[in-house]
Design brief:
six-stranded mixed β-sheet; alpha/beta; 5 helices; Rossmann fold; 185 residues
């Protein structure tokens, strides 16, 4: 059975890990969370922290941050220096042979933008007549445009001992930007 301490630890550290990978000053929400059904104790003795990215400096930075959040965790770049070229058929045996019994794996799954046009004038007392006049005065001329970049990050926790997924989450981080505008779409 999952202990209260383990649940509290996961509830605190996983969102923090999402925030660290996405930028501390941005809004991060968990879009989806899954955990293995039934009672599971997540008490790994040695964990490898993996951030799947072709940007080596970002990979190292995120893996260092993850390994600081989880007890007995090691960044994958130290355990598996060339992770992208690691043989998928033997990686599990290599990690087990090095004493790892858990893995935290993160990767960016999507980056998209949401555009919001602002600047509508509602008219006197928000009446129909006032709105009608302002709508025809400048129908496609917003005062400013909000562009929000949305970064989705997948986080999976695996038991290497059992070779199975025990926890998965998808987080979405919104990174807002405002642009002045005077264009027509």
């Amino acid at each position: 059975m999952r202990s209260n301490r383990t649940c509290s630890y996961l509830a605190f550290t996983l969102p923090l890990a999402f925030v660290l990978t996405s930028g501390c000053w941005r809004r991060t929400e968990l879009a989806t969370v899954w955990h293995e059904p039934g009672p599971t104790m997540l008490n790994f003795k040695r964990t490898v922290a993996v951030f799947a990215s072709t940007d080596e400096s970002m990979r190292r930075s995120v893996e260092d941050q993850l390994s600081m959040l989880f007890p007995n965790a090691m960044p994958a770049y130290r355990a598996i220096p060339h992770a992208a070229q690691a043989d998928k058929e033997t990686i599990l045996q290599q990690l087990r042979g090095s004493g790892f019994d858990g893995a935290i794996v993160m990767r960016v799954t999507n980056v998209s933008e949401r555009v919001t046009y602002n600047g509508t004038y509602w008219g006197p007392a928000y009446g129909f007549g006032g709105y009608w006049g302002s709508a025809w005065a400048s129908p496609y001329d917003p005062y400013y445009v909000n562009v929000t970049q949305i970064v989705s990050v997948e986080t999976n926790i695996y038991s290497l001992k059992d070779d199975k997924l025990v926890f998965a989450a998808l987080s979405e981080t919104s990174i807002p930007r405002t642009r002045a505008s005077s264009f027509a779409p």
